[in-house]
Design a protein that fits this description.
It is built from 4 helices and no strands. The chain is mainly alpha-helical.
Length: about 120
């Protein structure tokens, strides 16, 4: 997997979803749902940038961190996007799994980087 390319695609999708929320959903979502959408876009952006930075190091021992960050985007941001659009509260139960993937990805990266000399 080329995580630099994946990160670039994830960043493009974050821009598109941010613009869609700002222009296409502004009259369809209430303030609460729009806040959920914006939070999803924010975390999507931050972690896609993280994947890009980690992948730029081109170290084999950071691949698992990139996978965890990708899973976090899909689970955390994806569930928030769906929650904002559908208001199905059970979708919120998936969000913490994405948060755990984010935390695990960053902690694994810290561990792997501590062993690089």
């Amino acid at each position: 997997m080329n995580f630099r390319s994946l990160a670039a695609v994830l960043l493009a999708v974050a821009v598109a979803l941010g613009a869609f929320g700002a222009h296409g959903l502004k009259d369809r979502l209430d303030a609460y749902a729009m806040g959920i959408w914006e939070k999803a876009v924010f975390y999507h952006f931050i972690h896609a940038l993280g994947i890009l930075i980690v992948a730029a190091w081109q170290r084999e021992n950071t691949r698992a961190s990139c996978w965890l960050l990708t899973a976090g985007i899909l689970l955390f941001s994806g569930s928030l996007y769906a929650l904002a659009l559908t208001r199905i509260p059970t979708l919120g139960a998936v969000t913490p799994l994405g948060g755990v993937a984010f935390i695990a990805g960053w902690l694994l990266l810290a561990y792997r980087l501590s062993s690089i000399r």
